[in-house]
């Protein structure tokens, strides 16, 4: 999967960071130490890690992902990352 969307709420304490959904590469999720979580009333599950977004971004850069976009939506920060398939 060449694209990855991660997000986190803006708050004083670090984490959790949402790093993918149930269709995200499980090897990448294991590398990040993310666990699959299902929020009550949602029709989807998502991977979460207790690491803050900065740590997650650093880890993803080490395996070839790069940030291509970032946005703030309300109290949430969202990053879109891409990894070349070469």
TrEMBL record:
GO molecular function: GTP cyclohydrolase binding
GO (cellular component) term, any one: nuclear membrane
Entries under InterPro entries matching the protein: GFRP_sf (IPR036717), GTP_CycHdrlase_I_reg (IPR009112)
Subcellular location: Cytoplasm, Cytosol; Nucleus membrane
Biological processes per GO annotation: negative regulation of biosynthetic process
Membrane-traversing stretches: none
Annotated Gene3D superfamilies: GTP cyclohydrolase I feedback regulatory protein GFRP
Keywords: Cytoplasm, Membrane, Nucleus
Family statement: Belongs to the GFRP family.
Protein name in the entry: GTP cyclohydrolase 1 feedback regulatory protein
Species this protein is from: Rotaria sordida
